[in-house]
User: What shape does this take?
Amino acid sequence: MNITHISAECYPIAKVGGLADVVGALPKYQSNTTTKAQVIMPFYDNKFTQANSFTSIYKSKLSLDTTAFDFNILVLEENHLDFDVFFVDIPELLFKDYVYSFDDTERFLAFQIATLDWMLTWEDKHPDIIHCHDHHTGLIPFMLQESFKYEAFRKIPNILTIHNAQYQGSFSHDNVNLIPSFNFDHVGLLDWGGQINPLAAAIKCAWRVTTVSPSYMEELKLEANGLEDLLNAEHAKCSGILNGIDWNVWNPETDNYIVENYTIKTVESGAKSNKKYLCDTFNLDEDKPLFAFIGRLVGEKGSDLFPEVFKKALEENNATILLLGSGNDDVEVQLEALKKDFTGTYNAFIGYDERLSHIIYSGADFLLMPSRVEPCGLNQMYALRYGTIPIVRSIGGLKDTITDISEENGFGICHDHVTVPEITEAIQRGVKLYQNKLKYKKIRKQIMSIDHSWNVSANAYINLYNNIN
Ligand code: ADP
Ligand code: GLC
Assistant: This one.
C-alpha cells in the first residue's frame, strides 16, 4: 500500500505546532515491508531548506483562474529522514520565511493544485491512499471528486485528519474560479455559511474523517466553530484516532538537545541537571518546584489568563514558573512585564526554540496545559516521557491521556474549567505533590513507562485505510 500524506507542515522541515510533529512521525511508523508512506509539502524559505540541497524532478505551470505560476517538484539530494518527501516549490507564492500568513487562500490552493497536477503525471503509480491534513489541504477531497481534470483520481480513497477545527480557511465565493473547473451544480459541496469553506468541503467529500483524539471528535459534534451540524450529519464516516509521539526524537536517553541524558532509573539526577541548567539560565530558584508552559500564546491554550494566574500562583505558593512561547501581542507584553515583579521565581522566553523546549520537558517538574480546546496535545505526552507531571484541563486529547492523581493509578493533575481559580488551585496541588517526595518520585517513574509511541495509532490508521470502500 502506498500512502501519500499532504500537509503544510512536517518536522523537521517546517514546524509551527503539533501538525508538523505528527506528519513528521506517522509516515515512519506506517512504512514497513508492505506499506510505504510519503509526504508532499510546500517548499518554504527556512532554515531547513537553506541548509539542504534539492534536485528538481518535475517542472510545470499551474493556473489559478487566469494567472499562471511556475512550479517545481523538488526532492532532497541527501534524504536523512526515514521517508520520502516531495516539495512543491512555487517561488512566487510559497517560498517565504513563514508557513502561514494573510495570503494563505491563494498559496495553499496553488499548493493543492500543483500537487494534484503533478500526481496526474504518475500515470499507473497513483497512491492507494491520499491522506490530507487540516484545511490547507481541504480542497483536495473536493477536487479529487469534482474537478474535471482530476477525473483519473475518482477511485482513490482519501482521508481528512482534522488537527484543529478552529481554523477552516474560509474565503469568498467571488474566488470560486480559483478552483479547477467542476460541475457548478455541485458548488454547494464547497459552501458552509455562505462562504467557500475548505474544511467543511473536506468533511463532506473525504471518504473518511478523523480527529486526533476520540474525545475531540465527540466535542466537535457539540462545538466546532460552526461545523457541529455538518459533523453530526457525517458522523458515520468520522472517528477519532489518538496521536502518538515519535519515540526516537522524544527520548530522554538519546536526546541530543538536553543537558544530561537519562532513563527511568537515572531520572532523578538526569532531570535535576536539566533543571539546574534552566534555573541557572533563567535565574530561578532551583529548590522550588518548577512549573512550565510551552506553546502558542492563543486563546485555545488559555494563555490570556497566564499573567493573572502566574501572579496569583507565585504570590501564594513556593514555586517557580518558566514559559516558552509566542503569539498574542498583548499577552506577550504582559508576560514580559511580570518579569520585574518576580525576579528569581518567574521567567519567560518569548519566541520559538526547539532545543529549549526539549530541556524544559526534561528539567521542569510540572507542565501546564490549561487549554480551552486541545484536539490532542503532544506536549503532555512529551512531558510524560521525560518524567514531568502534566497539569491539564480535562478536554480533548488531554482528557484521553491524563488521569488525575486522585483516581486509581492516576499520574497527573486535572481541572475541569479554564478559570484563574481552577488553574491556580491545580498549581497548588502540584506544589503539595512535589513536597511529598516519595509520591512525586513514584509518579515520575510511572509516567515515564507509559507508552504513547505511534505503534498503536499508526496501525489504527492502516486498519482504517484497509476498511475504506
Ligand atoms: P499545537 O499544535 O496546538 O500548538 P501540540 O501540543 O500538538 O499543540 O504541539 C505543539 C508542538 O510545538 C510541540 O512539539 C511543542 O513542543 C512545540 N512548540 C510550541 N511552541 C513552541 C515554542 N515556542 N518553542 C519550541 N517548541 C514549541
Ligand atoms: C493541532 C492541535 C493539537 C494537536 C496537533 C497535532 O495543532 O491544536 O492539539 O496535538 O494539531 O495533531
